[in-house]
Q: What sequence folds into this?
């Protein structure tokens, strides 16, 4: 079933993690305790110019190997264990370490970091990068969101954009790396449902150098946004058309100019099209996006109040922290809700 | 009887309701509801429940007789497999309203979401009715097997009254839409039938209680073009194994 939550303050005002924890807790019946997580933007102002790598490490050996590799690739400005508290509900599967790193050259530094992340996930045994963006981080583990929040002291962070996920895994194993959000650079994705097109999407992404190693369909959504928006320069609106295009019967009824554009997008990005039942929230440093599958097989509600935009699987989760939003609505199937920073 | 649902888990709230009904409560008002699921699930008899706040999914599922009034929006799956009784929603209701509903009424004063009335069915005196004052999303009356759905589209003149793939797989029951529906929006197995004077008379009767509930004028509502959607056949696979 899974439950999604998202809060963006469009003026960039940072709010406590307590808000997103309340949103997540309001959807408790949607989770089964086998995955919970949060993405937070704006949490590392002191190191905001460095890529913050949150890494899951199985043991000391994995940490050493990761560190050796990172020293070859990047400049490590600072590294430390991500603060945690001991709780009985979540046994430790990994050490979580964070590295604030700089790429050796500014030219294509993001591609360089993606390569670095892919290498760690693919080649270093017992090491997985949970997040790799600047001034942001992902906190996730196997457990209920309320306990994951306690484990990582999420309430101590302040962020202008928060995303939450509680998992009810149906097709793939519950492990820390398989918990949501999924991240690459500053793209984070949380997902309810399944991506039935995973095989096609994965083959397409692998031809573009991405490596899907996290044993979960959602991973491809993060990489598709990175590929289409960051690398290929498509707008988010156009990317949404590529990922959840209208049906051919609707494209055929469009005015000629529009029809040509939609038909071209659909054909060009056929292997990127996302099929299956899903609701997703995607965020990066500038925006938060909500998107449903093309025939609306999963719930998603959006709301606006003042400088805040909210997206969640249930209306009650939004009302938990914002009882009377100025506007609340159910977005249409396949039509994105896009809220941008500094668009007030 | 008044209950405060603030901070209550759905299991605790539903236990309170069950206990109150067992103690012969006839009117229950619940305040500060937010997201608690299955409210009124499986309850029977002559009971009225007033909900202030946003009830969670599957409100009134398997309900048999009571009336639930929601003074806000409702979430997914209201009246799921409901047998009889009534659910009144003053705001919007979301997806799969009246999923597999077998009897009773659902009145919504706002919009309704996707797959409203999916697989609702009728049998003799058990006859489910869903009426929405606003618009409806795609797959309205999907696999519908009985009862009536009425969508009035009176809330927002900019949005479409009804989405695409209307009544896909319909093989019983009927849908009335206030306004024109283009043929290409019909799903497989549905057809547009003539909206006759008989239909108008029937609808006037059907809408009376709805209009009284929300303060609409029946005459004004009926003074418009309606589209009637019916199954092409009641037995789409009737000859499948005999030909």
A:
């Amino acid at each position: 079933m899974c439950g999604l939550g998202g809060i963006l303050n469009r003026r960039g005002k940072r709010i406590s993690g307590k808000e997103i924890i309340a949103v997540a807790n309001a959807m408790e019946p949607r989770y089964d305790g086998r995955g919970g997580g949060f993405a937070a933007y704006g949490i590392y102002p002191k190191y905001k110019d460095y890529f913050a790598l949150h890494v899951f490490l199985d043991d000391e050996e994995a940490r050493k190997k990761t560190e050796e590799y990172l020293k070859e690739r990047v400049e490590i400005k600072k590294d430390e264990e991500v603060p945690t508290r001991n709780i009985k509900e979540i046994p430790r599967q990994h050490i979580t370490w964070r590295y604030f790193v700089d790429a050796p050259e500014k030219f294509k530094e993001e591609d360089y970091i993606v390569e670095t992340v892919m290498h760690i996930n693919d080649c270093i045994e017992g090491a997985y990068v949970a997040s790799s963006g600047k001034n942001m981080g992902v906190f996730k583990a196997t457990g209920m969101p309320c306990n994951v929040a306690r484990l990582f002291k999420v309430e101590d962070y302040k962020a202008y954009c928060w995303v939450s996920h509680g998992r009810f895994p149906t097709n793939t194993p519950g492990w820390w790396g398989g918990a949501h959000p999924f991240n690459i650079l500053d793209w984070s994705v949380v997902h309810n449902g399944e991506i039935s097109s995973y095989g096609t999407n994965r083959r397409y992404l692998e031809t573009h150098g991405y490596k899907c190693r996290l044993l979960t369909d959602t991973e491809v959504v993060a990489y598709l946004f990175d590929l289409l928006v960051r690398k290929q320069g498509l707008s988010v609106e156009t990317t949404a058309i590529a990922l959840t295009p209208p049906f051919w019967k609707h494209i055929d009824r469009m005015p000629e100019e529009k029809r040509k554009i939609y038909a071209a997008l659909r054909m060009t990005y056929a292997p990127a099209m996302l099929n299956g039942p899903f609701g997703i929230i995607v965020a990066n440093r500038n925006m938060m996006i909500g998107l449903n599958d093309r025939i609306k097989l999963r719930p998603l509600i959006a709301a606006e109040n003042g400088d805040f935009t909210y997206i969640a699987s249930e209306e009650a989760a939004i009302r938990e922290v914002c009882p009377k939003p100025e506007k609340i609505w159910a977005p249409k199937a396949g039509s994105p809700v896009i809220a941008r920073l500094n668009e007030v | 009887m008044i209950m405060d649902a603030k901070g209550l888990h759905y299991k605790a709230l539903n236990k309170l309701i069950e206990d109150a009904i067992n103690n012969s409560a006839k009117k229950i008002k619940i305040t500060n509801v937010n997201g608690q699921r299955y409210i009124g699930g499986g309850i029977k008899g002559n009971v009225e429940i007033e909900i202030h706040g946003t009830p969670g999914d599957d409100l009134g599922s398997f309900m048999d007789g009571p009336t639930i009034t929601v003074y806000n929006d409702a979430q997914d799956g209201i009246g799921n497999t409901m047998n009889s009784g009534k659910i009144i929603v003053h705001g919007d209701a979301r997806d799969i309203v009246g999923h597999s509903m077998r009897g009773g009424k659902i009145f919504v004063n706002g919009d309704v979401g996707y797959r409203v009335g999916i697989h609702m069915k009728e049998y003799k005196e058990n006859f489910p009715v869903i009426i929405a004052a606003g618009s409806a999303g795609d797959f309205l009356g999907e696999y519908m097997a009985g009862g009536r759905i009425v969508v009035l589209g009176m809330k927002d003149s900019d949005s479409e009254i009804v989405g695409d793939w209307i009544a896909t797989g319909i093989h019983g029951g009927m849908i009335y839409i206030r306004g024109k529906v283009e043929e290409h929006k019909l799903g497989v197995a549905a057809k547009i039938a003539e909206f006759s004077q008989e239909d108008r008379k029937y609808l006037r009767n059907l809408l009376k209680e709805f209009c009284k509930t929300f303060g609409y004028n029946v005459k004004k509502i009926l003074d418009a073009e309606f589209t009637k959607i019916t199954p092409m056949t009641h037995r789409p696979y009737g000859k499948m194994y005999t030909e």
In short: The first strand of chain B starts at residue 2 and ends at 4.
